[in-house]
Fold this protein.
Amino acid sequence: MAHESILIVEDEDDIRELIAYNLTKEGLRSHGAVSGEDGIKKARTERYDLIILDLMLPGVDGLDVCRILKKDPNTQSIPIIMLTAKGEESDMVSGLELGADDYIVKPFSPRVLIARIKTVLRRKSAEPVDPSVPIAIHDLAIHPGRREVLAGKRSIDLTNMEFRVLHLLASRPGWVFSRYQIVEGVRGDNYPVTDRSVDVLIVGLRKKLGDAGEYIETVRGAGYRFKEAD
């Protein structure tokens, strides 16, 4: 994971320079953009492995930048990490639903940011997940063909919906799934759902998993993710 090129779309000079400094220390190349328009132009004309995108930008804001880039076939595969302020939970959810890969809340730790960047870059380079292949993570074994889940040697009896949610989350450890993305992943587009129904489903799933239920982590204001293996 060396020499990857990262675009930092951030209008505050101090923050942009801080991020660039820490990327350079890790052997990563960085390029800056000071507005949404500038970020879109550079993403379309140069090759980047990842984009760090502030949501509060002059002109075209971060959500619109994310929307535009994710709709463009030439840029939609570039991972995006959003930078958000603490009071922007609704924007954070919107960004994840538009296709952003992760988020960092300001003020942030440079070490945490670098760790998140490395995680997203590893995901990008990973092979696509085959939905028919069994998953073994932590002490869980998930067998799609048999609709079977084992926690150690204990068999876990799940409903079809609970199984599909568990398989979705466990297939991408560390990824944040919004409630909308969870429903879209297990039931398809336009299926009516509320935040409450997803939350109730997760509560029931955790209860059935017992101690293994702690692997399903709540990401405040965003959704859920499956804990990455150590």
